[in-house]
Amino acid sequence: SPGWASEGPGTSGKNRRVCHAAARLEMGSLWEEFNRLGTEMIVTKAGRRMFPTFQVKLSGLDPLADYVLLMDFVPLDDKRYRWGWGDGDGEGGRVPAVLSPPPRRYAFHSSSWLAAGRADPAAPGRVHFHPDSPAKGAQWMRQIVSFDKLKLTNNLLDDNGHIILNSMHRYQPRFHVVFVDPRRDSERFAHQNFKSFSFPETQFMAVTAYQNHRITQLKIASNPFAKGFRDGEPES
Amino acid sequence: SPGWASEGPGTSGKNRRVCHAAARLEMGSLWEEFNRLGTEMIVTKAGRRMFPTFQVKLSGLDPLADYVLLMDFVPLDDKRYRWGWGDGDGEGGRVPAVLSPPPRRYAFHSSSWLAAGRADPAAPGRVHFHPDSPAKGAQWMRQIVSFDKLKLTNNLLDDNGHIILNSMHRYQPRFHVVFVDPRRDSERFAHQNFKSFSFPETQFMAVTAYQNHRITQLKIASNPFAKGFRDGEPES
DNA sequence: CCCTTTTCACCTAGGTGGTAAGAT
DNA sequence: ATCTTACCACCTAGGTGAAAAGGG
């Protein structure tokens, strides 16, 4: 069901401090609107924020326990993509112009995403800790948790702590709630102390420049910082 | 010695996690330059930041222990002041045009601060927690700790959590390092678990509009956000 | 008369996609 | 031919003191 995440490993065997944790994706309808077109996220050398911003509303935490919140990004497949017409000369050979399910149904009278060979070597697998971590469950549940400081880069040598992704590859953002276990030997319970959430509607293609013009237009229409590129203002 | 704070109560009887704590005021020469003229800080209904910003470099903390950092503001005397000439009609009667030591030696051919009666009822005594609190000693000592989110207001009914001060009254900013004691019954050791610092060069008069024109000029010359009011730029 | 409030032009700081040049 | 980079105008967001208006 939209807005609710798959939770990866089952909740059986989880610490009671995380097993009831739940996360609702905020701005779900906007994410879905992008996802229908095939979301693209810009990556730059200096690092670029995501839009929409990944935001969740949490519940089911122990108000008095400490938690760390973090995100990582999982490659959705082992392919590299290119934007263009069907009869490409990509190394991957001919492939259907529309893939299933990701590069959504959008090859009507325009270009679309085509597989173009195997994925490049995986970028260093980094994680982004929410800057308020660690904090009490009560604090996290009080209001929406926003990952608006998270930035994406294509610079393999980045030393700003940004998330490193390969351009022209597809990713699934993943969100983790980690209970800070005060016990000694807590490492031995590490696998019980976290819970992960993946929202399929937040998957995206990393790009250095937008390819699908409809994505560009939706970004301009919905991101306040891009207001300078709007022309007619039919209200909304 | 300038740049080092008086520490209030002695270090005897303090918890070992705070008794070696030390704080060095940053931008000390700028603070002293303001202090020589008689520092004024604007207070507004919405809240105004301090300039210079209160910043310290910490040392002597236990890198692995948790600390909370906070500030409060102590009235420097029980007087209210007015800006003007010596033969005032203030309720306080005639007072020397230059007080000792605060309203520094600055009554040459202009106005100066004069005592004008007893202080107004004290404003609600609030404290400002550094937003990164709590954090490990190692984190606090890693870099300069800046209280740039702290705002001053004269609104007695303020509900934004800002520091409430009486305009035309003098204050001494005070900085506290509090060890977060994990022991049960830690309340009973509360008086041992903190250490306080006062830097005399940071004392100031709260005002709703600048009175001493030299203060205005120094603010304009040194605060980047006031660059719009600079004219000649002789470099610096 | 003295102090406070409101509004404003002018900044800092940083997030947008467009564009043209650069790289492979 | 395709993707990447650097720079730019144009925004959001918010910190300045000046100036004029308001209040006791």
From TrEMBL, chains A, B:
Signal peptide from the UniProt entry: none
Cellular compartment(s): Nucleus
Keyword tags: DNA-binding, Nucleus, Transcription, Transcription regulation
SUPFAM superfamilies with a match to the protein in the record: p53-like transcription factors
GO MF entries: DNA-binding transcription factor activity, RNA polymerase II-specific; RNA polymerase II cis-regulatory region sequence-specific DNA binding
Organism: Podilymbus podiceps
GO biological process: anatomical structure morphogenesis; cell fate specification; positive regulation of DNA-templated transcription
GO CC terms in record: chromatin; nucleus
Domain T-box: residue ranges: 25-231
Name of this chain's protein: TBX10 factor
InterPro entries: p53-like_TF_DNA-bd_sf, T-box_DNA-bd, T-box_sf, TF_T-box, TF_T-box_CS
PROSITE patterns: TBOX_1 (PS01283), TBOX_2 (PS01264), TBOX_3 (PS50252)
